[in-house]
Design goal:
globular, single chain, 5-stranded mixed β-sheet, 4-stranded mixed β-sheet, 51% helix, alpha+beta, 24 helices
């Protein structure tokens, strides 16, 4: 692609020609074709004994050529098996590895027909972004504040400076490969392998778009793939989650903006918000939550918790709020205007699993799921939650409030006040609590009050549902934090993964130790050690330890009589019990 010249394509007005040129060059350089009659592992070396078999004129010649051809095919198929199994590597990307594992085990899922129309799902997505009842007085106040900030004409030279070719190259290297393209059918691999002249044009194109504050409508279109939510009925439009596939140049522009504003936004975000932040993880939030509950145990108090869930959080973010709040944080009006240009006039076409397509829809609110910049904007949008007496843990739209009080009644009053304050704030900013998914639980070691249920209300006539085994970020929390239910769930999940490793190691040709070890780490240890620092001190971890010991025996070939303490050394895998001791 290095022979493309900058003067061939004029920025802004010829993006379509740019994409067409990329696809033309890709077709010319990427090998294509197929063989009409294909036998696995057959090549020219196999053709020679086959021709001898066809031209044989004696039984001895026929037998010798047949044996030679069979032995040669067996050898090549064995080599192909070793090569296939050796490529099961979950280090960088798991897509190819999972595809190989499913092909070897015969668990390829068949496509099913979507029972509802994609237009119905699209209308539901648009309906999610609409406000149920607008507070006109509050809206006028926000508009007034926004105009006041715009009159200040705030500007940040570091955010507004011209984009350099080196900066574009660095951001191109951050693009993930093997990702689905957007409506323009340009893959990330196309941009990663661009020549110097095309990168120069691309830099000029993004700079021109920024300074003119103009985004082509073509780049604002998205192909939304709808996925059925786990455990939901497939006949309801609310049961589907849309994932937007946007143009790769749109993703590149968003990544450039994200890298520029990330350092400023990081200083503004509250400590309890942990999603998509460097050095923070999901495990931190769950560990912080359980630490608050254990602190209530130590203080001889009752621990109450509310687990809030927002309905279609990304789809309901108010564009007027997304304009005001980032402007307060970044204090750079040209950058905010460009970001809002990226958010406005977005359109999408929904595609179901069986290939049905909807008509184009336009969104009035929200940020696109699958967008690079969306998590950062959502963090800014939810950073000004009001102060609460209960301790707060936030991970995207999953919010947990934990209160510690000497009596159950005091815990109920504290949680009721906090959730009422949060609900009023969320309603003002067009975010809605999910009444069905929002639950509360009580945590205490008092067996005589084991059946006590909190009575928490966030509206006069609306009581929060009770859940004795509430789940937060995939971790099931029981009253005494014994994690027995959680570990039984992990055991069932790991049991099926260990069965895959046995099938991989138990076939006739087997697999190398390296392939088995990588598969054991990814298939067995990864799901079994999910949030392990949280539950590693539980008395029920022995169920997980037995399964992991069994998987290490499979990959090392050790007998059952081998002591468990030798298995981590022989397999080169740190055992879960060792990690628990180090953590404790």
């Amino acid at each position: 692609m290095a022979f493309l010249h900058q003067e061939w394509i004029i920025p802004i007005f010829a993006y379509k020609q740019f994409t067409q040129t990329l696809k033309t060059v890709a077709k010319q350089t990427i090998p294509r074709g197929f063989r009409k009659s294909y036998i696995p592992t057959w090549d020219e070396e196999c053709s020679r004994p086959y021709k001898e078999y066809l031209n044989a004129d004696s039984p001895d010649t026929i037998q010798s050529s047949t044996s030679a051809l069979t032995d040669l095919l067996d050898k090549k198929r064995h080599d192909l098996w070793i090569d296939t199994v050796s490529n099961i590597d979950f280090t960088h990307t798991s897509r190819k590895a999972w595809k190989t594992v499913k092909r070897l085990t015969g668990t390829v899922s068949a496509k099913t027909m979507c029972p509802i129309s994609p237009d119905d799902i699209g209308r539901q997505v648009v309906r999610n972004g609409l406000t149920e009842s607008k507070d006109r007085t509050f809206e006028r106040q926000i508009i007034k504040k926004l105009k006041t900030l715009q009159l200040c004409n705030a500007d940040n030279p570091d955010l507004r400076k011209q984009l350099t070719i080196e900066e574009v190259k660095d951001d191109l290297n951050q693009l993930k490969l093997w990702k689905s393209p957007g409506p323009d059918s340009i893959h990330n691999e196309f941009l990663v392998n661009l020549g110097e002249n095309v990168i120069t044009w691309l830099t000029l194109f993004i700079n021109t778009s920024f300074y003119n504050n103009r985004i082509l409508r073509m780049r604002l279109r998205a192909s939304a793939i709808v996925l059925l939510k786990p455990g939901k009925v497939d006949t309801s439009p609310k049961s589907y989650r849309p994932i937007s596939l946007v143009c790769t140049t749109f993703k590149l522009t968003e990544r450039i903006i994200l890298n520029r504003i990330n350092s400023i936004v990081e200083q503004f975000l509250p400590h309890e918000q942990a999603v998509f932040r460097r050095g923070r993880s999901l495990v931190d939030q769950v560990a912080c939550l359980t630490q608050n509950i254990e602190q209530a145990y130590d203080d001889k108090n009752v621990g109450g918790a509310i687990f809030l869930d927002l309905t279609a959080a990304y789809d309901t973010a108010w564009h007027l709020g997304l304009h005001l709040k980032p402007l307060k944080v970044l204090a750079c009006q040209p950058m905010i205007n460009f970001i809002m240009e990226l958010l406005h006039s977005r359109s999408f076409v929904l595609y179901t699993s069986d290939g049905q397509a909807s008509r184009p829809f336009r969104t009035k609110n929200g940020v696109a799921q699958g967008s690079v910049l969306a998590p950062c904007l959502y963090n800014i949008y939810t950073a000004d939650f009001p102060e609460t007496s209960a301790k707060r843990s936030m991970y995207v739209d999953d919010v947990a409030l934990t209160a510690s009080a000497p009596t159950f009644r005091e815990a109920e009053l504290a949680l009721s006040h906090d959730i009422s304050v949060l609900n009023a704030h969320l309603t003002k900013w067009n975010l809605r609590l999910s009444v069905e998914k929002t639950v509360c639980s009580v945590f205490h070691p008092k067996n005589h009050s084991a059946n006590y249920q909190l009575n928490v209300k966030f509206k006069p006539n609306v009581t929060v549902k009770i859940d004795s085994y509430s789940s937060y970020l995939g971790i099931c929390l029981d009253r005494s934090l014994l994690f027995r239910t959680q570990l039984n769930t992990l055991k069932k999940r790991a049991l099926s993964r260990v069965a895959l490793i046995k099938r991989l190691a138990g076939v006739g040709w087997g697999a190398s130790f390296k392939a088995l070890r990588i598969s054991c780490l990814a298939l067995a240890f990864a799901p079994a050690e999910y949030c392990a620092p949280v539950w590693c001190r539980s008395a029920h971890t022995k169920h997980i330890d037995v399964l992991l010991d069994e998987s290490m025996r499979v990959i090392t070939g050790c007998l059952r009589s081998t002591p468990s303490s030798f298995l981590p050394i022989l397999s080169g895998i740190t055992h879960l019990r060792q990690g628990a001791v180090l953590y404790a």
